[in-house]
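Fill in residues.
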């Protein structure tokens, strides 16, 4: 996605833009219904004289929608997805694009279907509502809006097909409205069947939608406490994600990883995509972490799944050993290595860290250009050995390894003024001015010198310190 496409996408995702489009949709539907109503009056009447003005206003609103659709098409990297999402809107503006379509009553009725788009707008902006409103009111409002839409569409269609008939008395606006309402509730044409074939087809459609809406209402009420409602507010458009973190696989370590990332950025935005093959969302214990994590069901070794998660726009990819489904540790390592190599091939700029059980396989990760790897079985053994040889050491390690309390390790870039300084000088200055302990120097060529006896800071070097917060050296 190019830069100007991102700017357009962010513009259309703004709440005020979505609400403005919703107002225009309601205005367009109102103008269309008014056009149907005024067309039923006798020629030469005051209502008929207002009809050209209504048609002009509706045409101007449709021109705004045409411009909007053209901009959305330009901002959408996938034309197929654009036509899949906005085909109803394209049909709705067809009468304005082709004057011949405007003369066809069916095409004018199609413009009323534009109100379906309001459901998508409500779905996208409902996260701005209070939580108690989001939990159930949106579903009920959707059902009510669908019912209202069908009443409006039925009224307009009956006016279009039954309003002016050559062989029988036309139907009034009031009769068309109550026909739609009664038919949806009663399940049969009330007070009687329409006279034209087109009107009868519309009545059958109204009856069918009445039963459908009743089933939807019943299902919404019965499913209010289902898991789907608990996670609906965290749905994410993966195509819009940028600078996010992808976690491939699932085990109990993922919860700790998410908690640590959140603790490191308590005030900043954070989005983490977890790719897992679970049929449902894995149990996340801390509720405060749930808004920052979205789950993508799929196989993280597949290229299509990684692309769907936005691997080309991610900054970090963490691959954990996933033994779900009865996989052995060897199978889990093979999948981790395959996923890591695939990620590096798809996006060499992403920082990749992979977890494996067997350290013998680490050479494959190094040869594939993977930035870091963790041998989980070895590190746990190291910690157990240190805790027995240096008693009480685990308290120190526990504090240093978490961002949620105390001091942590930080990698810090050095300004130009620190170049040429010795390790000892830099150690004392950081302790006195920043209350930080210098642990190691990370050389520009990738070499790491831990607690060196001597040495100077060179251009491109970074340091590793122990501090209570990240240093901002200037």
């Amino acid at each position: 996605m190019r830069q100007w496409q991102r700017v357009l996408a962010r513009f259309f995702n703004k709440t005020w833009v979505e609400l403005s489009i919703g107002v225009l949709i309601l205005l367009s539907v109102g103008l269309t219904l008014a056009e149907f109503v005024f067309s039923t009056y006798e020629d030469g009447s005051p209502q008929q004289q207002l009809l050209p003005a209504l048609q002009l206003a509706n045409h101007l609103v449709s021109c705004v929608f045409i411009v909007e659709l053209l901009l959305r098409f330009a901002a959408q990297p996938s034309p197929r997805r654009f036509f899949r999402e906005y085909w109803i809107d394209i049909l709705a503006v067809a009468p304005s694009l082709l004057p011949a379509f405007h003369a066809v009553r069916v095409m004018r009725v199609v413009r009323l279907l534009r109100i379906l788009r309001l459901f998508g707008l409500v779905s996208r902006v409902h996260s701005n509502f209070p939580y108690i409103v989001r939990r159930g009111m949106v579903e009920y409002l959707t059902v009510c809006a669908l019912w209202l839409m069908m009443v409006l569409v039925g009224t307009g269609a009956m006016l279009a097909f039954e309003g002016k008939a050559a062989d029988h008395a036309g139907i009034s606006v009031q009769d068309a409205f109550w026909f739609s309402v009664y038919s949806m509730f009663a399940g049969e044409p009330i007070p009687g069947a329409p006279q034209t074939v087109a009107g009868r087809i519309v009545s059958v459609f109204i009856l069918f939608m009445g039963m459908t809406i009743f089933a939807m209402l019943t299902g919404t009420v019965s499913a209010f406490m289902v898991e789907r409602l608990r996670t609906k507010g965290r749905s994410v458009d993966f195509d819009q994600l940028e600078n996010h973190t992808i976690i491939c696989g699932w085990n109990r370590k993922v919860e700790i990883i998410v908690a640590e990332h959140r603790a490191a950025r308590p005030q900043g935005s954070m989005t983490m995509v977890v790719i897992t093959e679970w049929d449902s969302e894995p149990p996340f214990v801390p509720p405060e972490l749930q808004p920052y994590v979205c789950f993508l069901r799929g196989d993280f070794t597949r290229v299509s799944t990684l692309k769907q998660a936005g691997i080309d726009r991610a900054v970090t990819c963490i691959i954990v050993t996933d033994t779900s489904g009865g996989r052995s540790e060897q199978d889990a390592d093979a999948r981790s290595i395959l996923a890591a190599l695939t990620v590096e091939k798809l996006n060499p700029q992403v920082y990749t860290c992979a977890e494996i059980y067997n350290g013998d396989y680490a050479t494959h990760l190094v040869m594939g250009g993977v930035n870091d790897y963790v041998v989980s079985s070895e590190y746990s053994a190291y910690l157990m050995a240190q805790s027995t040889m240096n008693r009480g050491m685990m308290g120190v390690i526990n504090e240093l390894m978490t961002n949620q309390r105390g001091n942590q390790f930080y990698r810090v870039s050095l300004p130009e003024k620190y170049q040429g300084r010795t390790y000892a000088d830099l150690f004392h200055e950081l302790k006195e001015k920043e209350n930080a302990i210098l642990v190691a120097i990370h050389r520009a060529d990738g070499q790491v010198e831990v607690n060196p006896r001597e040495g100077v800071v060179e251009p491109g070097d970074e340091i590793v310190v122990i501090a209570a917060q990240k240093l901002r050296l200037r």
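Residues 131-162 form the longest helix (32 residues).
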